[in-house]
């Protein structure tokens, strides 16, 4: 009479992003090394499922002696080794001691995600079909951590110096919150080289700098009556130090698996912040751009 082995897989189901697929060989914690002369078969009892976050479990394959790696679930898989129910127990079975498992990141995430310790497979053995102990002969447990290093930097050759040119003081008079007469608005095409930004992640540009005291939507140029305004391509002002003032950039397409060119256009010009005549002189200001991921 053939002998049998049962198997149960507890699968961690997680949310996740199409980012990578990894394959691992595993070893059983039971430490068995050979099948001896005993016979058995394998089955998968009804799988149970647990929920976690960030990962999705993909097909697992477990080694069955004389058969090879078999995808779970399966029912009463024999090892094709002759034997009888009354045979003496054998030791050192290799069934359940190795196999393969795949992980697939199925949802975008930023930073670090932990995989809590999860029972993936429990292997049960018997010499009589459909009669199994509640104690597994081996188990496979999985735990770990995945850290994705992400970043963006300005592409080589991109200049961020903006020269507004020269204006007469009277061009600003009576134009609070507006550009001077005959303004020359400056457009800049920005390109960022980004890595490890998955599809579905939103990429934003924000500004940090000293706002003009009289007109906080403008960047200070060191003169209370004049400021600099930065707009997105739709004419919305990017307010400095405002977490709600964000420019969503074009993420482009992935290339070389993990890279993408992120682009956007900004428009800059001076404005009158008080409507008064500004004093003559040279003025300058500085703002810092931040790239944010969501």
Automatic annotation (TrEMBL):
InterPro entries: Adhesion_dom_fimbrial, Adhesion_dom_fimbrial_sf, Adhesion_dom_sf, Bact_Fimbrial_Adh_Pro. It is found in: Fimbrium. Coiled coil: none annotated. One of its GO terms (biological process) is cell adhesion involved in single-species biofilm formation. The keyword Signal applies. The keyword Signal applies. GO terms for cellular component: pilus. It comes from the Bacteria. Residues 1-20 form the signal peptide. This is Minor fimbrial subunit. It comes from Escherichia coli O81 (strain ED1a).
């Amino acid at each position: 009479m053939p002998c049998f082995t049962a198997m149960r897989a507890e699968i961690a189901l997680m949310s996740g992003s199409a980012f990578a697929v990894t394959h691992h060989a595993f070893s059983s914690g039971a430490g068995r090394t050979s099948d001896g002369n005993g016979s058995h078969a394998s089955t998968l009892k009804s799988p149970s499922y647990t929920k976690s976050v960030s990962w999705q479990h993909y097909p697992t394959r477990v080694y069955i002696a004389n058969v090879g790696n078999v995808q779970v679930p399966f029912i009463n898989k024999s090892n094709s080794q002759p034997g009888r129910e009354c045979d003496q127990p054998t030791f050192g079975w290799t069934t359940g001691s190795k196999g393969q498992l795949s992980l697939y990141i199925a949802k975008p995430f930023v930073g670090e995600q932990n995989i809590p310790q999860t029972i993936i497979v429990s292997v049960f053995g018997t010499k009589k079909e459909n009669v199994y102990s509640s104690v597994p002969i081996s188990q496979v447990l999985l735990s770990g951590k995945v850290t994705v290093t992400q970043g963006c930097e300005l592409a080589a050759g991109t200049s961020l110096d903006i020269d507004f040119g020269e204006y007469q003081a009277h061009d600003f008079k009576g134009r609070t919150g507006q550009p001077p007469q005959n303004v020359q608005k400056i457009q800049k095409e920005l390109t960022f080289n980004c890595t490890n930004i998955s599809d579905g992640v939103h990429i934003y540009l924000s500004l940090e700098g000293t706002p003009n005291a009289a007109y906080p939507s403008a960047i200070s140029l060191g003169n209370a009556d004049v400021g600099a305004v930065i707009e997105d391509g739709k004419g919305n002002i990017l307010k400095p130090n405002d977490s709600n003032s964000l420019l969503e950039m074009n993420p482009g397409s992935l290339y070389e698996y993990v890279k993408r060119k992120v682009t956007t256009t900004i428009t800059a010009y001076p404005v009158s912040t008080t409507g008064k005549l500004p004093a003559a002189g040279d003025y300058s200001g500085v703002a810092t751009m931040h790239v944010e991921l969501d």
